[in-house]
């Protein structure tokens, strides 16, 4: 097994990297960018080698997604990692999970319908609901002593509304880092089943969990309700392949499949994957498992390193214990800054570009989300600047 060097610092300037180009106005030249959720780790060697071979062939034409090789790579990965057997006929291509959310919201609801999200949560959930003329219905998570839990009473009340058609579940949860237990997920499904509501499960971070923590794919856990569950998966977070625009949407219900095909093929034509994306995904799922295991172990150490430092040097800040994702969620409310003041201090005093908690909706004010999928020397520099911003 190859040992990968995650300490290597890679200069991403000149690569059109979004994290370096899409910065707040007036950002300092030496800003440290740890906001968007892509890694600063080089991709696994088998992925890069497969891409080189494909490029050397000299032709990058139209490429099929529904091939035996591609389906075997996807289904093999999820069976090995989770024991989840997926029928290849129920897997559909999307260039990303966010475009899939937009399409699913459009085909599963009508204008004015309500859709539940559990804030603070990944911003595009609310964006795609509102952007399609639907109503965002918030079921806020409960944060008690740094531990996030679901408010099932409130969720039941929100789902009781006949105008609410379903919910988008973030599992693992972004930004809190919660990996929901079997019991929590079964409770969600039970509430939705009793009211005949659909569930879109965004499981894009499923492969990135702390040691000893287990993610439960919703369709595997609750197959009896599979006709009302859709799962969104992708290799992008797991293997640092976000730029390859490859996601796999699992849709067991034939009626929903027909609606999906009508939306993505007949209406928008979003059915052709990129040639290099397919190549990268097959190589990732088939040959890069050891890279994922080593990456997870390295990120675990980054979390321990950051949490220890913040507890020691910034006693008024609270690190939310992470069970999954590579995103550190820090409660800075103890310092008393308004959201605008906090953002100003991070950018202009700390020279840090982070994801401000307010973008995750109600309950995110006063928090910062930090991407720790980077070399430890970068984490150390972030912590030094974080101290400067809050001091």
Keywords:
2 domains; 7-stranded mixed beta sheet; alpha/beta; Aspartate Aminotransferase, domain 1; 391 residues
What would the CATH topology of the largest domain be?
Answer: Aspartate Aminotransferase, domain 2
Largest sheet: 7 strands, mixed
Mean pLDDT: 97
Which residues sit in consecutive blocks of at least 5 with pLDDT less than 50? Answer: none
Based on CA inertia axes, which overall geometry fits?
globular
Run of helices and strands:
HEHHEHEHEEEHEHEHEHEHHHEEHEEEH
Cofactor: pyridoxal 5'-phosphate
Domain Aminotransferase class I/classII large: 30-385
InterPro entries: Aminotransferase_I/II_large, C-S_lyase_PatB-like, Class-II_PLP-Dep_Aminotrans, PyrdxlP-dep_Trfase, PyrdxlP-dep_Trfase_major, PyrdxlP-dep_Trfase_small
Pfam family, one: Aminotran_1_2
């Amino acid at each position: 097994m190859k040992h990968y060097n995650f300490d290597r610092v890679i200069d991403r300037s000149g690569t059109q990297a979004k994290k370096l180009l899409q910065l707040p106005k007036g950002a300092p030249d030496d800003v440290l960018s740890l906001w968007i959720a892509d890694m600063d780790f080089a991709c696994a060697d088998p992925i890069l080698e497969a891409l080189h071979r494909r490029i050397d062939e000299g032709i990058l034409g139209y490429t099929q997604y529904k091939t035996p090789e591609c389906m075997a790579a996807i289904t093999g990965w999820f069976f090995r990692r989770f024991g989840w057997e997926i029928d290849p006929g129920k897997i559909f291509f999307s260039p990303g999970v966010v475009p899939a959310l937009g399409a699913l919201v459009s085909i599963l609801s009508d204008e004015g319908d309500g859709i539940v999200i559990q804030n603070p949560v990944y911003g595009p959930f609310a964006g795609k609901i509102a952007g399609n003329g639907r109503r965002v219905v918030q079921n806020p998570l409960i944060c008690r002593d740094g531990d996030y839990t679901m408010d099932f009473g409130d969720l039941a009340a929100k789902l009781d509304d006949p105008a609410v058609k379903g919910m988008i579940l973030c599992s693992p949860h972004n930004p809190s880092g919660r990996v929901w237990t079997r019991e929590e997920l079964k409770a969600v499904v039970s509430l939705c089943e009793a009211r005949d509501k659909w569930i879109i499960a965004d499981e894009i971070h499923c492969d990135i969990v702390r040691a000893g923590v287990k993610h439960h794919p919703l369709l595997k856990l609750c197959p009896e309700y599979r006709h009302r569950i859709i799962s969104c998966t992708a290799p992008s977070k797991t293997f640092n392949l976000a730029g390859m625009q490859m996601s796999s949407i699992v849709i067991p219900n034939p009626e929903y499949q027909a609606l999906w095909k009508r939306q993505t093929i007949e209406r928008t034509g979003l059915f052709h994957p990129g040639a290099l994306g397919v190549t990268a995904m097959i190589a990732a799922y088939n040959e890069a498992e050891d890279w994922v295991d080593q990456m997870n172990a390295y990120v675990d150490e980054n979390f321990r390193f950051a949490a220890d430092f913040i507890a020691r040097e910034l006693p008024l800040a609270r690190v939310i214990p992470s069970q999954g994702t590579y995103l550190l969620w820090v409660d800075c409310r103890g310092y008393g800054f308004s959201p605008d003041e906090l953002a100003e201090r991070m950018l202009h005093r700390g020279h840090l570009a982070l994801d401000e908690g307010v973008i995750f909706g109600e309950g995110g004010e006063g928090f910062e989300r930090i991407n720790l999928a980077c070399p430890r020397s970068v984490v150390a520099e972030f912590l030094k600047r974080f101290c400067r911003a809050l001091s």
